[in-house]
Amino acid sequence: MAVSELQAHHPGLNGTNGARPSPETRPAGGSAVHALVLNASMEPLCVVPTRRAVVLVLSSKADLLHAGDGHFRAERMALPAPSVVRLRRYVHVPFRRRAALSRRGVFLRDEGRCQYCGRPAENVDHVVPRSRGGPHVWENVAAACQRCNAHKKDRTPDEARMTLSRRPYAPRAAFWLLVAVGTVDPVWRPYIKDVIAP
Ligand SMILES: [Zn+2]
């Protein structure tokens, strides 16, 4: 299987080719919408619609590691809706690029928390303000709440006597797949640590 085959089913790319669940394959109950796909090496590869993960499992291309809520019925069997699946064969990932910087990505990396005070974040703060030559890069942006953002103004954290809870970093390329989904299922966290962390 090629990476492109998986990515063709990524919601952001909205592909419709390839195998699909049979018409009688349908979610029952409140199943998760997306599943995390791990490479055979356990490295996170991408996020696909749950239905796509069902196909991977039913076609023996992947094993179910974690089930979410609900079941998919296919012919005479019911499969727990996958939350995490692992490919049986290793898929070579040709390029490792940096994930593109986006507001959504910053919020996801910082878990929606202000990096100064821990409250829910509403803004993206440039640690070294843009007016002071601070670049618009992962290492210079942090999620921040309205209050901290207003307090900091055009100052560096040192000048404003504010402390970042952790140093901003650039996530790895596979991160964009998570960004496209927007939320991270808590059961994915142990598997995607290396993608989100430096
Ligand atoms: Zn704050």
Structural summary, described in words:
The protein is an alpha+beta fold. It folds into 2 domains: about 5-95 and about 175-190, no CATH class; about 105-160, DNA Binding (I), subunit A. About 20% of the residues lie in helices and about 25% in strands. It contains 6 helices and 7 strands, in the order H-E-E-E-H-E-E-H-E-E-H-H-H. The chain has helices at about 5, 50-60, 105-110, 145-150, 175-180, 190-195, and strands at about 25-30, 35-40, 45-50, 60-75, 75-85, 125, 140-145. A hairpin with a 5-residue loop joins strand 2 and strand 3 (about 45-50). The two termini are about 30 Å apart.
Shape category: elongated
User: How many separate domains?
Assistant: 2
Please report the distance between the alpha carbons of the first and last residues: 28 Å
Q: By helix and strand content, what is the structural category?
A: alpha+beta
Count of alpha and pi helical runs: 6
β-strand amount: 15-25%
Bound molecules: zinc ion
Give, in spatial order, the strands making up the sheet with the most strands: 1-4-5-2-3
Please state the CA-atom Rg, rounded to the nearest Å: 20 Å
Order of helices and strands: HEEEHEEHEEHHH
Chain-averaged pLDDT? 79
How many strands, which pairing sense, and closed or not: the largest β-sheet? Answer: 5 strands, mixed
Q: Please mark out the parts with pLDDT under 50 across 5 or more consecutive residues, or reply none.
A: 7-31
* Helical residues, percent: 10-25%
Strand segment count: 7
